[in-house]
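F.,

This is the one I mentioned.
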């Protein structure tokens, strides 16, 4: 593993690079930490150049601000990493908020992507009017305003299936706790307001795949993936496990991602496992 810092528009982005082969950039969601993907990156390093990073304002990166997070800036950060570290093009994987950033990036900077895997983007605005899950971000924001990061963090964990059934690495957990106020106070509005650019995503010149975990059927952060796939006319796949299966069982998750990424890059045959 090689670590370095990338200078990006007022921030220094800590990133890690493993392996060799086609470039695979992995974007984290809440907490924005490269450490979520350390195990998966090690598993995939025999076939891909895997790039992970701490998003702007999180963990070992700088650029924290009191201004609400701008998804376009997050997408520009990811584009800059690809241009600087990956030779200008990469397959992108994003989980949760990282999937939202990946979808934003695909719409704004299509020339740097060879493909996109958007895993469980919590894009609740695509759900039907009146759906109770559309209030998730507003409910969490109110809880943060009333009880601060500890209260919001506890409730957030309770809404995420599988959390509490396995142990996070100690260093990752410590960094995440230091990112909670940034998450709920600064990044939350950006994720809450996201609406996919359907026209741009339909026109993307590379494969896009939406997906969700088998254990997350019906969850507020899984259901939007099916709707976005339907709207832009792309495949949907089911991954093993929970929202953060890549942290609970890196080998299992990496095996699924390896097969999908290889198929997407080769473009040999259709991606299977459409939603029922």
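My design for it:
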């Amino acid at each position: 593993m090689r670590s370095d810092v990338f200078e990006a528009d007022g921030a220094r982005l800590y990133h890690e690079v493993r392996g060799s082969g086609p470039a695979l950039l992995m974007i984290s969601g809440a907490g924005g930490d490269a450490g979520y993907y350390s195990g998966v990156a090690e598993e995939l390093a025999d076939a891909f150049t895997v790039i992970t990073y701490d998003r702007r304002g999180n963990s070992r990166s700088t650029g924290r601000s009191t201004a609400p997070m701008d998804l376009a800036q997050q997408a520009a950060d990811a584009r800059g990493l690809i241009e600087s570290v990956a030779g200008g093009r990469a397959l992108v994987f994003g989980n949760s908020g990282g999937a939202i950033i990946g979808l934003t990036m695909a719409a704004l900077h299509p020339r740097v992507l060879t493909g996109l895997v958007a895993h469980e983007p919590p894009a609740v605005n695509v759900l039907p009017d009146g759906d109770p899950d559309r209030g998730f971000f507003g409910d969490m924001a109110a809880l943060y305003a009333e009880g601060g990061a500890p209260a919001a963090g506890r409730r957030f964990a309770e809404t995420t299936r599988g959390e509490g059934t396995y142990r996070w690495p100690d260093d990752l957990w410590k960094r995440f706790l230091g990112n909670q106020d940034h998450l709920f106070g600064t990044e939350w509005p950006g994720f809450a307001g996201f609406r996919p650019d359907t026209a741009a995503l339909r026109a993307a010149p590379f494969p896009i795949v939406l997906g969700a975990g088998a254990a997350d059927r019906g969850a507020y952060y899984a259901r939007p993936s099916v709707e976005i796939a339907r709207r832009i006319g792309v495949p949907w796949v089911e991954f093993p496990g929970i929202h953060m299966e890549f942290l609970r069982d890196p080998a299992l998750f990496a095996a699924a991602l390896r097969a999908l990424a290889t198929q997407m890059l080769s473009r040999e045959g259709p991606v299977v496992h459409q939603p029922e």
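The chain has one domain: 2-266.

Talk soon.
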